[in-house]
Amino acid sequence: MKFGGTSVGTPNRMKEVTKLVTKSGEPVFVVLSAMSGTTNSLVEISDYLYKKNPEGANEVINALEKKYMKHVDELYSTEEMKSATREFLISEMNYLRSFTKELFTSFEEKSIVAQGEMLSTNMVVNYMKEQGINAVLLNALDFMRTDKNSEPDPVYIKEKLTAIMEKVTTPLQDQKSESEGIQVFVTQGFICRNAYGEIDNLQRGGSDYTASLIGAALNAEEIQIWTDIDGMHNNDPRVVDKTEPVRHLHFEEAAELAYFGAKILHPTCVQPAKYAGIPVRLLNTMQPDAEGTTISNLTEYGKIKAVAAKDNIIAIKIKSSRMLLATGFLRKVFEIFESYQTPIDMVCTSEVGVSMSIDNSTHLGEIVDELKKYGTVTVDTGMCVVCVVGDLDWSNIGFETQVLEAMQSIPVRMISYGGSSYNISFLIKEEDKKRALQSLSRTLFNE
Ligand code: ADP
Ligand code: ASP
Ligand code: MG
C-alpha cells in the first residue's frame, strides 16, 4: 500500500492511513511519500544552498520545523511519544542546518531531498506504535538501489529485501496471537542508493515506483496506490471539468497514460508490476470505499479508455533530399540523439524528411548543430503531446475517424499511430491543449 503526499499531508490524514493499513487484519507493506509540500521545501533549501545563500535556506528550515512541531500535539496523545518525536524532529532539522556550512553539490542535495520521506515514515510509525500496532520501520536506503544507468536494480532489491524480511518477520500465528499483533512494515518511497552507495532518488513522484518495485520483489498479491482521487480518470481533471474514473486498464494502457502525462502514476511505475503479473489498484484515501481503477492484463475489446497530455515538448524536423532513397539516414539522425542521451518520444517520417519530438532540451543546441550537417532543421518549442489510449488494435476500425473528428479545429504538427496498439498521439501547441482535451472528452466520452 503506497500513500502519496496528500494522503499523509496532515496529522488527521496520518491517522486515516493507520486505520486503512490495519483494516484487513493481514500483514501489509506500506510505502509513504513525504507530507505534501515538504519535498518542494527541501528542493527550495537546496536551491538557496547552491546559490550560497544560507540565510534563505535557514528561513525555509525554520518554517519547516515550526510546521512539523505543530503536528506533534495534534498527532500523539502520550507525553512520551510527543517528546520522542520532538527529539527526532530537532535532530532532522539540525541535520538540514548542517548543510548550510558545507560545500554544496548534487550529493548534498540528494541527502537533503531524502529527508521528507524520513520525516513522514518516522512520524507515522511512532503514531502506529502509540496505537499499539506492531509497526516495523524499514530504511529504504538498506535495500532500494539503482544501477550504473540510474535504473532500479530489481535483483539486488529482491535479494536484500527478502533477507531483511526474513529477519524482521515473526511467524503469522504469533502475530495473530494478542500479544504480538499483525505486523505492518513501513518504508520510505522515492529514496534509494545509487550504484556507488550514495543517497539518490527515483525522481519526483517516484514513490509509486518504489511501491511497484517492492510489490514485485515481495511477490505481493496486489499493489495499491492510494492517492487523492478515485482512480485514473478518462482525461486530465486539472484541465477538463467533467472527467470520469476508468475502472479497468491494461498494463500497457496505464503505462502509456503515465508516460504521457497522467500525473496520478509515475511514468515507469507500471513496468515492475507488469513483469511480475501483479495487479495495481489506484485508490482514494479520501473515499476508501470507492472502486478506483484496477490495472491488470485484461483488455476491454475496442474500447477507448482515456486521454492524457504532456507539456514542454520540442518538435525537431530535418528535411533533406539526400534522404530520398538513401539507406542509413535515420540511423545517423538517431545516433545524434543517442550521443546526447536524449530520448525521442514521437517519430514521423516522409520520403524527404523526419520529425521527432523530445522532452529534454538540455542538449538541444548541440543536437541541432549536428543535425544541420544532414539537412535543413526546424525547431518548434512550447508543444504538447496529446495521447488517446485504449484498445486501438489496427483490426478495430473507426477509432481514427472518431479521434480526428475531435481534433478537427486544432492545428496538428505530428500524428503517430502504429508503434503500439494502445495509443494514438498528436503533437499540438501547448496553447491548444485545453481546447483539444475538452473536445476529445466531448467526442469520445460524451462529456
Ligand atoms: P500523490 O501525491 O498521491 O502521488 P499525485 O498528485 O502525484 O498524488 O497524483 C494525483 C493527482 O494526479 C490527482 O490529484 C490529479 O490532479 C492528477 N491527475 C492528472 N491526470 C490524472 C488522471 N488522468 N486521472 C487521475 N488523476 C490525474
Ligand atoms: N516526495 C517525492 C515528491 O514529492 C516523491 C513522491 O511523492 O512520490 O516528488
Ligand atoms: Mg504522485
Compile the SSE list and pairings.
Blueprint: E1 2-3, H1 11-22, E2 28-32, H2 38-50, H3 54-75, H4 79-98, H5 106-113, H6 115-130, E3 134-137, H7 154-168, H8 172-176, E4 183-188, E5 191-193, E6 199-201, H9 207-217, E7 223-227, E8 248-250, H10 251-259, H11 270-276, E9 280-284, E10 293-296, E11 304-319, H12 329-339, E12 347-349, E13 353-358, H13 364-371, E14 376-390, H14 399-406, E15 412-417, E16 423-429, H15 433-445
Parallel strand pairs: 1-2, 1-7, 2-4, 3-4, 7-9, 8-10
Antiparallel strand pairs: 5-6, 9-10, 11-13, 11-14, 12-13, 14-16, 15-16
Helix pairs in contact: 1-3, 2-3, 2-5, 3-4, 4-6, 7-9, 9-11, 10-11, 14-15
Structural features, described:
The chain has helices at 11-22, 38-50, 54-75, 79-98, 106-113, 115-130, 154-168, 172-176, 207-217, 251-259, 270-276, 329-339, 364-371, 399-406, 433-445; strands at 2-3, 28-32, 134-137, 183-188, 191-193, 199-201, 223-227, 248-250, 280-284, 293-296, 304-319, 347-349, 353-358, 376-390, 412-417, 423-429. It has 447 residues and is α/β, with parallel strands linked by helices. Strands 3-4-2-1-7-9-10-8 form an eight-stranded mixed beta sheet. A six-stranded antiparallel beta sheet has the order 12-13-11-14-16-15. A two-stranded antiparallel sheet has the order 5-6. Helix 2 (38-50) packs antiparallel against helix 5 (106-113) and helix 7 crosses helix 9. Helix 1 links the parallel strand 1 (2-3) and strand 2. The structure holds adenosine-5'-diphosphate, aspartic acid (ASP) and magnesium ion. Magnesium ion (MG) binds at residues 4, 205, 208.
